[in-house]
Amino acid sequence: MDNRAFHKSELAQMAGVSYSSFFRFLCTRRKELTAMGSPVRAQIVRGKVLNYICKEYNIQLPDAEPEIKKHEKFR
């Protein structure tokens, strides 16, 4: 499962809409989001809520950044 989390403003930017338009879209899906355990007003989304929003709004998430090994970090 994808462990990434995104701020709703980031998702709105990826979708190419304003945050207010994105929030209005989410309000139309209030029942579904609440059933998944995420209130509409939550600022950070992750897990199944993130997957649901991306599927419904056709958002392509960027590829996950590769992990940096500790010894490479300080070179």
Could you please describe the fold and organization of this structure?
With 75 residues, this protein is mainly α. The chain has one domain (5-60). The protein has 5 helices and 2 strands. It has helices at residues 8-15, 19-27, 30-35, 47-57, 70-73, and strands at residues 5-7, 44-46. The chain has a two-stranded antiparallel ribbon with strand order 1-2. The radius of gyration is 15 Å and the shape is globular. The mean pLDDT is 84.
Descriptive keywords:
mainly alpha, 51% helix, 75 residues, two-stranded antiparallel sheet, single chain, globular
Put the structure in a nutshell.
With 75 residues, the protein is mainly alpha-helical.
Count of DSSP E strands? 2
Spans of at least 5 consecutive residues whose pLDDT stays below 50 are: none
Q: What's the helix count?
A: 5
Radius of gyration from the alpha-carbon trace, in angstroms: 15 Å
Whole-Å distance between the termini? 31 Å
Topology order in helix (H) and strand (E) letters: EHHHEHH
Indicate the proportion of strand residues. 5-15%
User: What overall geometry do the principal axes of the alpha carbons give?
Assistant: globular
What is the domain total for the residues? 1
Q: Considering DSSP H and I runs of 4 or more, what fraction of the residues is helical?
A: 40-55%
User: How does the major sheet shape up?
Assistant: 2 strands, antiparallel
Structural class: mainly alpha
Strand order of the largest sheet: 1-2
Mean pLDDT: 84
